[in-house]
Design a protein that fits this description.
nucleotide-binding; ATP-binding; ATP hydrolysis activity; 2 domains; binds adenosine-5'-triphosphate; Rossmann fold; ABC_transporter_ATP-bind; P-loop_NTPase
Amino acid sequence: MIGQAAAVIPSGVSPDGMTSPDQAAVSVRNLDVRFGDGENAVTALSDVSVEIKAGSFVTMIGPSGCGKSTLLRAIADLVPASEGEIVVLGHTPADARRDRNFSFVFQEATLLPWRSAIDNVRLPLEVGGGGTVDDGEPARLLEVVGLAGRENALPSELSGGMRQRVAIARALVTKPKILLMDEPFGALDEITRDKLNEELLRIWQETGTTIVFVTHSIPEAAFLGQQVLVLASHPGRVKEFMAVDLPYPRRLTDRDTLAFVEISAHLRRLLEEC
Ligand SMILES: Nc1ncnc2c1ncn2[C@@H]1O[C@H](COP(=O)(O)OP(=O)(O)OP(=O)(O)O)[C@@H](O)[C@H]1O
């Protein structure tokens, strides 16, 4: 072939733009994030490298202030890298954000109080355009998160757990390839949290979305994740990227098994060293 340059295809992306399970959804390479200057400078993350495979479920845990939210925000293009590189589905975080390759779920549901549940779920489609999303998708997603029949309820008429379900449905409505979740169940009571943990695993298996999930809870990290990224603090850095060798589907009762207790104990020891 004369005079035709080969197309440059970013790693992790095939020529048709699809990812395969062994490809990285997110590659973080030698990432440093610093805030402020001079005496007030804070190194939130130092030399962090991690590869998150497409379709995987990764939980992130570490002591308060070790940089968990900062890492999630850097992947989401909400915080700039000071050094190093982040590649999201073969693109820069800014391009991945523009292409709506990921959605973010925060600890607070941040719903618009004057809009019904279904209108909150619809919001990203109204703001960014529906693209290929079917009109029935918001209602279907409310059903997926267990809120069929509550489509017209206002946020003030829903419990905290229900509001967070609406936030998850809203995050899924654009069919993101990656879901970034920052302590999404941290403000909920234990029973509701457990229930949402099981539901989130079901949603993950149904959608095939890559999930990166920050938590302070050792059982939650071990129950949900295929891998747990443990961060140490001062400065924030990778302590261990640990595989959780437990089969799916997982049930809450699996947390009583010896294998689960041993994994949790290992995570606790790691955190004590952080
Ligand atoms: N916008 C910012 N400006 C200045 N410093 C910041 C900013 N965001 C985070 N930091 C600092 O960076 C460090 C990491 O913060 P980060 O919120 O990422 O930690 P975390 O592990 O998520 O904490 P927690 O578990 O308490 O939520 C902390 O020292 C924090 O004070």
